[in-house]
């Protein structure tokens, strides 16, 4: 039985999450037990300085270099905006030694292992650039809904790291989370369109929660903006309801997303799509990060 059905019914539904959020012992990793408890309750954890300001600057520089590499667009690893400029680069941990090293950094992978209670593999990486006054709004969604429906991820035993490579403010599109929403699964309406990930801007079409479900969750849990200086990070559970406004500020912003899945939660056939998405969006090879 599919415990997290979605895109199958004509009406949306709010379902109880049946799986835990934290799978390992609270004292086995870099997070304090208070941080682990807070993550379990809220579905997210804010780290004011995961990277030093200097490291954040170096990764922002590395991302700038990757944005200029034309071969990445040819390989389909970029998302391009209406002006033809590169907004996102996928799979950065495979195409850049610097990002490969970052995902193996114990400050990052150690926290992922601690939350997921096992070895972990990388499910997806993506660096995103939004120019000054450049929009880039991300509608409310649960990543797990997509990973389950389209990538065949069985359970919400995955954690995402959103790492600020530039300062994040309420004006420039900082990540927003509904704290506690990870305990409710929103079953969405609408079938998965064929190959919809090929959209050049990779805008999400399927798997967006309906407004009534979002209103219920927002009224119950509220909304928090994840603001702070470059180098800060937010870890969030696969099923946390999150989104972002556009960049309304006169300066650009860059961030990095790293998603870890438990090696005990390897992706199978998609639960609500004909074919799994390509490897750069949802890894199918559960090789542990060492
Ligand atoms: O493509 C993904 O895997 C993730 N990104 C977006 C914007 N929505 C679905 C999922 O969370």
Question: Which percent range fits the helix content?
Answer: 25-40%
Tally of helical runs: 8
Order of helices and strands: EHEHHEEHHHEEHEEEHEEEE
How far is the N terminus from the C terminus? 34 Å
Low-confidence stretches: none
Structural class: alpha+beta
Overview of the structural elements:
The chain has 290 residues and is an alpha+beta fold. The chain contains eight helices and 13 strands. A seven-stranded antiparallel sheet has the order 2-11-7-13-5-4-3. The site of ligand 6CS has 7 residues, from β6 and α7.
Write the layout of secondary structure elements.
Blueprint: E1 13-16, H1 33-42, E2 44-47, H2 53-67, H3 70-74, E3 78-80, E4 86-90, H4 92-95, H5 97-104, H6 106-116, E5 120-130, E6 138-141, H7 143-151, E7 158-164, E8 175-177, E9 184-187, H8 211-221, E10 224-225, E11 233-237, E12 242-244, E13 253-262
Quick tags:
13 strands, binds ligand 6CS, 290 residues, single chain, globular, alpha+beta, seven-stranded antiparallel beta sheet, 25% helix
Please summarize what this structure is.
Helices cover 25% and strands 22% of the residues.
């Amino acid at each position: 039985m599919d415990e997290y059905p979605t895109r199958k019914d004509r009406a949306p539904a709010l379902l109880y999450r049946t799986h835990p959020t934290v799978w390992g012992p609270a004292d086995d990793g870099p997070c304090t037990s208070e941080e682990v408890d807070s993550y379990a309750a809220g579905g997210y954890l804010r780290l004011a300085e995961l990277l030093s300001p200097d490291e954040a600057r170096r990764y922002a520089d590395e991302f700038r270099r990757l944005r200029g590499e034309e071969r990445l667009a040819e390989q389909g690893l970029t998302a391009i905006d209406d002006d033809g400029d590169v907004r996102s680069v996928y799979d950065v941990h495979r195409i850049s030694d610097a990002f490969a090293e970052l995902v193996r950094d114990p400050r990052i992978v150690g926290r992922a292992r601690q939350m997921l209670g096992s070895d972990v593999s990388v499910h997806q990486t993506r660096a995103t650039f939004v120019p000054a006054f450049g929009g880039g709004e991300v509608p409310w969604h649960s990543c797990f809904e997509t990973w389950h429906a389209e990538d065949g991820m069985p359970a919400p035993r995955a954690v995402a790291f959103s790492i600020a490579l530039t300062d994040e403010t309420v004006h420039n599109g900082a990540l927003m989370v509904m704290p506690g929403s990870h305990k409710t699964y929103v079953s969405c309406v609408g079938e998965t369109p064929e190959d919809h990930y090929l959209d050049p801007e990779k805008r999400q079409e399927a798997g967006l929660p309906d407004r009534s479900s979002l209103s219920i969750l927002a009224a119950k849990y509220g909304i928090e903006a994840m603001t702070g200086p470059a180098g800060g990070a937010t870890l969030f559970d696969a099923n946390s309801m999150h989104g972002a406004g556009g960049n309304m500020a006169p300066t650009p912003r860059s961030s990095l997303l790293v998603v870890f899945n438990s090696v005990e939660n390897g992706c199978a056939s998609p639960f609500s799509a004909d074919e799994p998405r390509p490897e750069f969006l949802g890894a199918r090879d559960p090789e542990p990060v060492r």
